[in-house]
Amino acid sequence: MNQVKTIAGRLDAKGLKVAIVATRFNDFIVDRLVGGALDYLERHGLDPADITLVRIPGAFELPLVCQKLADARKYDGILALGAVIRGGTPHFDYVCAEASKGIAQAMLGSGTPIGFGLLTCDSIEQAIERAGSKGGNKGVEAAAAMLETIRVLEQL
């Protein structure tokens, strides 16, 4: 019987260059996402000197900055980290939808893997859970997804 050829990404960050785009809005949550992502990448062999951290105002600006970084062709992958917490107006829905769509468009248009670490939560408690407590750390998960995607694309 023939063997199925399997392509899978190895979780080895050695030799890569990564940009992390992190929002300042809700920074008490986002800083925990950044910390988790940095710890994960360094534990998987990424030299801290090969990481560029870009701070931006909020989630709505994530797509533009991710696109500019991808267009520069200096980075093997980009992490988009932020937190949008629902308030009393529809603003939450617009920001989340446009940020998500724009990040996806930046990734598809550039061919650069972008780890999606934008929390979209109904409450501060949900955001805290996803930034390092009960729900794990979504910054770590976004970094892992980005890293694995980089390594898969190298094999295609």
TrEMBL record:
GO terms for biological process: riboflavin biosynthetic process. GO terms for cellular component: cytosol; riboflavin synthase complex. Pfam families: DMRL_synthase (PF00885). Pathway: Cofactor biosynthesis; riboflavin biosynthesis; riboflavin from 2-hydroxy-3-oxobutyl phosphate and 5-amino-6-(D-ribitylamino)uracil: step 1/2. Its EC number is 2.5.1.78. Gene3D superfamilies: Lumazine/riboflavin synthase. (2S)-2-hydroxy-3-oxobutyl phosphate binds at G88, T89, R130. Catalyzes the formation of 6,7-dimethyl-8-ribityllumazine by condensation of 5-amino-6-(D-ribitylamino)uracil with 3,4-dihydroxy-2-butanone 4-phosphate. This is the penultimate step in the biosynthesis of riboflavin. The active site is at H91. Belongs to the DMRL synthase family. The keyword Hydrolase does not apply. The keyword Transferase applies. This is 6,7-dimethyl-8-ribityllumazine synthase. It catalyses: (2S)-2-hydroxy-3-oxobutyl phosphate + 5-amino-6-(D-ribitylamino)uracil = 6,7-dimethyl-8-(1-D-ribityl)lumazine + phosphate + 2 H2O + H(+). 5-amino-6-(D-ribitylamino)uracil binds at F25, A59, F60, E61, A83, V84, I85, F116. One of its GO terms (molecular function) is 6,7-dimethyl-8-ribityllumazine synthase activity. It comes from the Bacteria. Keywords: Riboflavin biosynthesis, Transferase. It is an enzyme of class 2 (transferase).
